[in-house]
Design brief:
The protein has 195 residues and is mainly alpha-helical. The protein has helices at residues 7-19, 27-58, 60-74, 89-101, 134-139, 170-187, and strands at 111-112, 117-119, 122-124, 129-130. It contains six helices and four strands. The strands form two sheets. A two-stranded antiparallel sheet has the order 1-4. The protein has a two-stranded antiparallel sheet with strand order 2-3. The termini are far apart. It binds protoporphyrin IX containing FE. Protoporphyrin IX containing FE (HEM) is lined by residues 36-37, 40-41, 44-45, 48, 104-105, 108-109, 159-162, 165-169, 172-173. Keywords: Heme, Iron, Metal-binding, Monooxygenase, Oxidoreductase.
Length: 195
């Protein structure tokens, strides 16, 4: 067991639930659940990849360094696969830095205060909707290149949110981002048209 379930396992489980009389979830809820996964999981990862490539094209030295790391780790002419991406700190740093500069969900999901809460001089009244500006926090001058990464342990860098509602797609998204970005960098020569 690697802690992940496959798409087949997920669909089998949903089919079983839908046929089960106990009605943990009805068909309509299952449809919405799958719709949620598609909407939450597609634009977020693709826009991060686009930003990563745009930043790398603007910074050719960093692109070159990432290529060197992958050439050493994977080997020239070989395809990138997940097993080869276990120790690629430079690629990981590029993904983290892209998520820092361009978080795809900059205001996270809205929260509602369950009771009056005092944060320093500010009182958030019970029932108020609270938006957390994750982009603004991390763009401040004091916060740069946090080493802990993006996994919600350090509340200064929370592109996936944090706490009980942290993005459940985080492990999948991080693996996809490393795999796809690693493949794009390793398998193709990139430069801007007309320099
Ligand atoms: C770069 C990729 C992604 C980023 C940056 C991202 C970011 C986020 C953020 C910020 C939230 C709200 C968390 C909070 O408010 O604390 C969220 C929620 C969610 N994400 Fe992601 N996400 C990504 C990819 C994915 C993927 C691949 C999936 C699933 C396949 C996914 C599924 C979800 C779901 C279902 C929620 C709602 C969770 C809830 O309401 O409790 N996300 N995501």
């Amino acid at each position: 067991m690697n802690g992940y379930i496959s798409t087949n396992d997920l669909l089998d489980t949903l089919l079983r639930i839908s046929q089960d009389d106990s009605q943990e979830l009805d068909r309509n809820q299952i449809k919405h659940f799958i719709f949620d996964l598609f909407t939450a999981g597609t634009e977020t990862t693709t826009s991060t990849l686009e930003w990563a490539m745009a930043e790398l094209l603007r910074n050719p030295k960093i692109l070159l360094e990432a290529r060197r790391e992958l050439e050493q780790k994977i080997g020239k002419g070989k395809m990138v696969d997940e097993s080869g991406l276990t120790c690629v700190p430079y690629l990981q740093a590029i993904v983290n830095e892209t998520l820092r500069l361009h978080p795809p969900v900059p205001l996270l999901l809205p929260r509602r205060a369950e009771e009056d809460i005092q944060v320093h001089n500010l009182v958030v009244p019970k029932g108020a909707q609270v938006l957390i500006n994750a982009w603004c926090i991390v763009s401040s001058k004091e916060v740069h290149r946090i080493r802990n990464g993006v996994k919600g342990w350090d509340f200064r860098l929370i592109p996936f949110g944090g706490g009980g509602r942290i993005c459940p797609g985080l492990p999948l998204a991080i693996r996809m981002l490393h795999l796809v970005l690693g493949s794009l960098i390793h398998s193709f020569d990139w430069e801007l048209e007309l320099g």
